[in-house]
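Re: that chain you flagged

S.,

Sorry for the slow reply, it's been a week of failed gels. I finally had a moment to sit down with the sequence you sent. For the record, here it is as I used it:
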Amino acid sequence: MRSLFSFTALLLATSTAVAAPAVRQGSSQASFAAHQTVTEQQASGVYDLSGLPQFSGKVVQFLPSSHGGVLGLVLADGTQVLVSPEQGHTLAGLIKPGDTVSIRGIKARSLALIRAFGITSPRGRTMQDGFIALQQQSPEMITGPDIVLHGEIWLPLYTLEGQIAGVVLKDHSVIHLAPREATRLQAWLKPGQTLYAVGTGSNGELGTAIDARELGPTSGQLVSVTIGNAPPRGPAPGSAGYDVIPGSE
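Prediction finished late last night. Pasting the structure tokens below so you have them in one place:
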């Protein structure tokens, strides 16, 4: 009888010891889920990104907007990786320059440009895009003191649609232009050339960026630039076409 009792007690103790880790594991998982950051919770998004091409590269800099947000990043080989604007701040909290990241997205056919839908940091944290593409630049005018940028052009700056919309200088500052104006001034926007720009924008931890109001190869050769989606400048007051309403002639 004593042997039977001892065997039963031993079996009960062994069962308890085996079951205990499962209880602790469940508690640990619940605790981890409760303390996940918003960025980490976005890793399990609505869409399965495993079918998208995967890329990797070392982050050189963010692509700041003139309003202080982030439009994407630039890899060491010059490839621009763009995200939708609502994911910009999430991206800035996920990675930092110098990180080697993994990217799920779509590469442009002939441009060094990737539209990213998922980015994973070297620490295993992931951002998944919501597949909503909003306008990259606010139509509102920025008020504040002028910022003057000048230096050698490193890269053209692209929009999500692949249009040139400014440049990235070698000092990592960014000059934003409306695509229409970038086309008009394309002779001045080639990599390796020196550019001088004046405009309002932001200058912070994520980088320096302006909406150019004046632009030229030197400070003595500046031309006026139309900002954002504003209509192009019309004829000067007093000129022959000043009083003519377009489409009425």
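What I noticed first: The chain has four helices and twelve strands.

Talk soon,
D.
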